[in-house]
Amino acid sequence: MKKKQGLVKSIKSLNKILRGKPQVPVSLADNQLLQVIYNRRSVRSFKAEPIPEDVFNAILEAGRLAPCGVNLQSWTFAIFNNDLWLQTFGRPIPFRGDRAVIIIADSSRYRQVLEEFPYCPLTEYTIAVMNASMAAMNMNIAAEALGVSSVMLSETGRSGILDAKYLKEKLNLPDATVPLTTIVFGYARGLHPQMPPKLGMQDITIHGRYQATDRATMEDWLAQMIAGYNASHLGTNFQEQLETYQNKIGYAEDDLKEMVFYRKPGSSADGQPKRKE
Ligand SMILES: Cc1cc2nc3c(=O)[nH]c(=O)nc-3n(C[C@H](O)[C@H](O)[C@H](O)COP(=O)(O)O)c2cc1C
To answer: Whose C-alpha lies nearest to ligand 1, atom 10?
Structure first.
């Protein structure tokens, strides 16, 4: 009986996912940029087709020109083809993508000429994350507009923030840098992925004082997440994936504290901020 109820719930959730569509105002339905943004999906399967050099360079250029606080450009893009990824990490680019870019929050470069900046690692890190994320998204959208698909990774294949310490060692990154995410690029193989369950506008917006989204809405969303994941991932399930993620988040916390609160330049170890245990 319980199994049957679970199955009915899954089918209902899958139905809701299939009905999910971008809310495009009719008057703007022909707008090409909106179409690119709304139809972008994370792609996790790529053809063995190389991205032409000019196309890839145009994607990188979109990253270079992204907006950022005080124009500090606190980012570094580590660029890979398959050979370099293999040489660096001993395995192919995740999902057999053609190219990969590791987006690094980087407050070290401008410090070479702005030495008077106070030691404020958390603020600098936060700003660098915001800036680098802008660059990452600009690259994603530019890629999409050029017919190149992508996926950003924080965890899969030791490629992002949850393995930041490992990436930092492999790339020999200095203090005041944190690898955030790998963007994998390539030409999509197979059908265009279905939009995953997105919360409604009313669930993620407030007008004035904060109002929490009601629990029933969140339970419904979680049921869709579980059903969608299980239907599209054979051989694993949402619960297993969640456990892996929770485990990695746990140990990434200490690594990240070390990286964000790097030793104050010119100070002894005692100069480091005290950690809450
Ligand atoms: C910062 C960031 C990290 C992500 N990490 C992963 C990852 O490790 N593995 C993965 O398969 N997808 C990852 N994704 C893709 C998300 O799962 C995806 O964006 C989300 O499910 C929404 O789907 P959509 O991009 O098709 O709208 C990541 C996305 C972002 C923005």
So the answer is: 153
Identity of the amino acid at 115: E
Cβ–ligand 1 contact at 41 (below 6 Å)? yes
Q: 94: helix, coil or strand?
A: helix
> How far, in Å, are 88, 95, 160, 186 from residue 156 at the CA level?
16, 9, 8, 16
The pLDDT score that the predictor gives to residue 267 is 62
Ligand 1 center–CA 193 separation, angstroms: 13
Q: How many Å is the maximal CA-CA distance in the chain?
A: 69
Binding site membership of 38 for ligand 1 (Cβ less than 6 Å): no
Element (H, E) at 141: helix 121-145
List beta partners, residue 182. Answer: 102, 153
Apex 190 CA angle, 184 and 195, nearest 5: 75
Q: pTM for the whole thing?
A: 0.93
Between the CA of 174 and the centroid of ligand 1 the distance, in Å, is 27
- Please identify, by atom number, the ligand 1 atom nearest to the C-alpha of residue 43: 26
Atom 7 in ligand 1: which residue has the minimum CA distance? 153
Residue pLDDT, tens place only, 238-251: 999 999 999 999 99
